[in-house]
């Protein structure tokens, strides 16, 4: 987690909780491994996008 | 190579000490020249070497060997491949082969409300399509352009990372992480409203400027967060617009969210390095207020006054004029380094860096010899 | 009847609302070209106030940029009533950011201040080659050529441009001023320019001195 996610409030950035709401089929399945990977790429995209404006 | 490993450990300790306000065993020194300079120094073509990164390992090896430095003298965020793939307009390569930022407008004045409602939505939907041509068009094409650009960027960074690891292993540099972010006001200015645009906004819609800065602050915090807050490293923040504002506009519009950004990062346990560009002498009292042990690298100003007002609380850096390396004799250049050491080193909290980066190498000029001499001098003689 | 002193002060205060109201009201009265010229002059005097406040560190670069924008807007609004009147130009200047460099904010500030002061300004843009400078000088026969740059490589480009102007046999017909971060007395000599500045207001004064 990079921090500050709770205040992002954007349709283009999902926290794990939001993602899970949209993908309930993942509930209970190796959550830690899946969550950290999914979140890693959400954050990688965030960093890439913001670096285009810095 | 145990030599390199112990050198790295020694240098890491120096920086850990420095960043926590303790006095390291000597003044750390960093080479201010960049990858662009290194490529020219190696006699290679600037354009080709920024596209074919395999050319860079011998470039860096020679660079690291010839110039004394405690930190890895590399890092470029302006590798052209992903910019080209996205149809960049804000970062382009000039006829001289240097990546530069011409004045662009990403956000129109009438779009402030849209931005304030959700900055990230506005960035994806409006700002990026305006600034990067490949964000427009058929969804399939946009998706492919973004995928290619991300892949290219990721490959470039990974490859440069392998060179860095090799150089660290060979030369024993300090191993520090870094994150990049900006003050909210600077973010609003640089790629979004432009210098000209924000100058008018400050007069016409100061409330919107203020609200936009508040809205984007969480994104600036997130962007500036290191992968691991306790790692040795810092958040790098170049400061742009403040010297061009009246005091009252600075106080009302620039300072509040800038201060919050630094405080939030410091609360997370991170070190912050401000690149205090241009002249902040009228704002020294503000800088004093920032969390203890903020690194402040100055471009212009009075080093004596800065040391006096800020040197007991913050880590001072910069001031060494790179233009002297172009025009001065070797002795004059070394004398200047000594002068700054005498002013800034006593009592600690000082890191030798130049006033800005050196990107261009004049083929027959004195810079190479002068730079080598200065770095050597500080490395050998930099005591507190 | 428009109060020219109030207008001048409003420009000096960078009071956009007042300026635009006054100008719009003025244009609506269908004024003579001669009266419109007086209004332009009043605005120029206001810009001189802006320049003074900048030198006194009450205004900063952001304010100069805003001033330039206000003046452009004002001239646009006055164009319909200025047409047909021979506007008094004090001289003409060709400006550009030199080859290899893409920075133009300082150049743009200088350009708008020069226009405000009555110069005809021909702006070649950024990354401008020596031949482009020479072609424009041949075309418009300016009194002054202004070269701008922020990177140190600009110094080399400026040298080449002066050489090109020389080779074209035009050096004696123009005054050359250089501007930007890396310019100073030494580089000015090296380049072969007549003057240098890192301050748009000061550069303008130099140019005004040349055409008087």
Could you explain the architecture of this structure?
- The complex is a heterotrimer of chains A (54), B (384) and C (212).
- Chain A is mainly alpha-helical.
- Chain A contains two helices and no strands.
- Chain A is elongated and about 40 Å long.
- The model of chain A has no long low-confidence stretch (mean pLDDT 87).
- By secondary structure, chain B is α/β, with parallel strands linked by helices.
- Chain B has a domain of 82 residues.
- In chain B, helix 2 crosses helix 4 and helix 10 runs parallel beside helix 11.
- Chain C is built from nine helices and five strands, in the order ααααβαβαβαβαβα.
- In chain C, strand 4, helix 8 and strand 5 form a beta-alpha-beta unit.
- The model of chain C has no long low-confidence stretch (mean pLDDT 93).
- Classes of the chains: A mainly alpha (54), B alpha/beta (384), C alpha/beta (212).
- Chains B and C meet through helix 9 and helix 14 of B and helix 4 of C.
User: What is the rounded Rg of chain C?
Assistant: 18 Å
* Beta-strand residue percentage of chain B: 5-15%
In CATH, the homologous superfamily of the largest domain in chain C goes by the name Cobalamin-binding domain
Q: How much strand of chain C?
A: 5-15%
Task: Show unreliable segments of chain B.
Answer: none
* Count of discrete domains of chain C: 2
Radius of gyration of chain B: 21 Å
User: What is the number of helices of chain C?
Assistant: 9
- Tell me about the biggest sheet of chain B? 6 strands, parallel
Q: How would a crystallographer describe the biggest sheet of chain C?
A: 5 strands, parallel
* Overall shape of chain C: globular
Number of discrete helical segments of chain B: 16
How would you state the average pLDDT of chain B, rounded? 96
Helix content of chain B: 40-55%
Q: Report the uncertain regions of chain C.
A: none
For the record, give the distance between the C-alpha atoms at the N and C termini of chain C, rounded to a whole number: 32 Å
CATH architecture of the largest domain in chain C: 3-Layer(aba) Sandwich
Number of strands of chain B: 8
